[in-house]
Specification:
The protein is of the alpha/beta class and 250 residues long. Helices cover 23% and strands 23% of the residues. A hairpin with a 4-residue loop joins β10 and β11.
């Protein structure tokens, strides 16, 4: 599903484009190579790869998965997609340790199982990370260049990816910020309102047009307004609007 030039949605549980537990999974066409933003939950990853094929792309051009954070709905598919395509897994600092199993995330997964987000028998597939990225580092994707913007809060290393096209500035905001300035604060280890408050300012003045989050609606114009709303909400005395009431829709 083409969203803007050179950007496609190839996975999404919300609209049943792929497994119902998958986050939104985006494809960047860098002409010389392809990259995925996130990899879904790892249950029937073939549906994501088939969607890439249906858009007319050769999987041999898929060189990397850019992981936004290590929660299973975003990163559980990394091992399978890596095995099927030989692509590299690129993950933010700290999130790489959870993806590889150095840091245990079973407590977080068990909380999500009790909430009904994952079934009781779900097992998170660990995966080797080929490259670790830090805040403001640049990642080439063929003829494109993506900038990592790390905004801890949803998790310790949650990272957005900024892509500047000729006529459109795009932010893949993962679970950091959603439509209307809603944030991804959760009741699991690593999610922190204080981290959000300290780091949300990194999303100021990006002048983005398209805001492509990890769940729910995406925005094609004036996306910066939604980031600015989140920034403003985190300056106020009350706990800002979170995605918790929306996530039950899955």
């Amino acid at each position: 599903m083409k969203i803007v030039p050179d950007i496609y949605m190839v996975g999404s549980g919300q609209i049943r484009l792929s497994n119902r537990m998958d986050s939104h999974v985006y494809l960047i066409d860098g002409k010389d190579e392809l990259a995925l933003i996130d990899a879904g939950v790892g249950v029937d990853s073939e549906r994501i790869l088939e969607n890439v094929r249906k858009e007319g792309f050769d999987l041999k051009r898929l060189r990397s998965v850019l992981v936004t954070h290590s929660h299973p709905d975003h990163a559980g598919g990394c091992r399978d997609i890596q095995a099927r395509t030989g692509c590299s897994i690129i993950a933010p600092e700290h999130e790489d340790k959870m993806l590889e199993g150095v840091i245990d995330i079973e407590e977080s997964i068990n909380i999500c199982k009790k909430t009904g987000i994952y079934p009781p028998d779900y097992i998170f597939p660990r995966c080797k990370v080929d490259r670790v990225v830090r805040h403001r580092q640049k990642i080439p994707v063929g003829r494109c260049e993506v900038t990592a913007i790390t905004v801890p809060g949803h998790s310790k290393g949650s990272t957005c990816y900024l892509l500047k096209q000729e006529d459109c500035r795009i932010l893949f905001s993962s679970d950091v910020v959603f439509f209307g300035g809603t944030i991804g604060l959760g009741n699991w280890p690593g999610s922190s309102l204080d981290d959000y408050r300290q780091n949300i300012g990194r999303l100021a003045d990006l002048r983005i047009d398209a805001l492509l989050p990890g769940h729910f609606l995406w925005i094609l114009q004036e996306g910066q307004e939604h980031l600015d709303k989140a920034i403003q909400n985190l300056k106020l005395a009350w706990v800002p609007p979170s995605w918790s009431h929306q996530h039950s829709l899955f």
